[in-house]
Specification:
156 residues
């Protein structure tokens, strides 16, 4: 579809080319769906969820990478007994894991709020309100940082 549209010189035209008409109608149809989705706060939050997880964990991940290297899974490192690492490393590991879970729970609450049995029994789950607050606060932070790079990645 995109290839066919890219081949067209652009502008308004009358065409008998059914492949071009089909490509454009599909593109137009899907664009409307995208705007319907992105036009809601929930749609925006769900669309940007992976970006949010990256944005709020960027600095702590850099810190962990510089101090203990590329180790996975981070959850296993975070669950080691207190004192295994320095306090600064433990705090960053905790921040990364908790941020990831908070945003994952937020996404799950938004997608299917009636099926949360595995969420509410997870030891990383605080409450629905907390997960939603973390999602919305970090969505606002991401949008603000997009327009003002001086905001960095402050974590709510």
């Amino acid at each position: 579809m995109y290839k066919r549209l890219d081949e067209h010189p652009g502008g308004i035209c009358k065409s008998q080319d059914l492949a071009l008409l089909d490509a454009f109608s599909t593109y137009f149809h899907e664009t409307i769906h995208w705007w319907q989705h992105i036009g809601s706060t929930t749609g925006l939050l769900l669309s940007l969820s992976p970006v949010l997880q990256t944005h709020i964990n960027y600095e702590p991940l850099k810190f962990i990478l510089q101090n203990i290297g590329p180790c996975k899974p981070l959850k296993t490192l975070a669950e080691k007994p207190p004192g295994t690492f320095g306090l600064d490393i433990e705090n960053n590991l905790n921040r990364i894991v908790n941020n990831w879970y908070d945003l994952e729970f937020n996404r799950r609450i938004l997608l299917n709020p009636k099926n949360l049995s595995d969420v509410i029994t997870n030891p990383f789950f605080d409450s629905q309100g907390h997960s939603i607050q973390v999602g919305l606060a970090n969505l606002l932070l991401l949008l603000a940082a997009t327009f003002d790079s001086g905001l960095g990645s402050t974590i709510f």
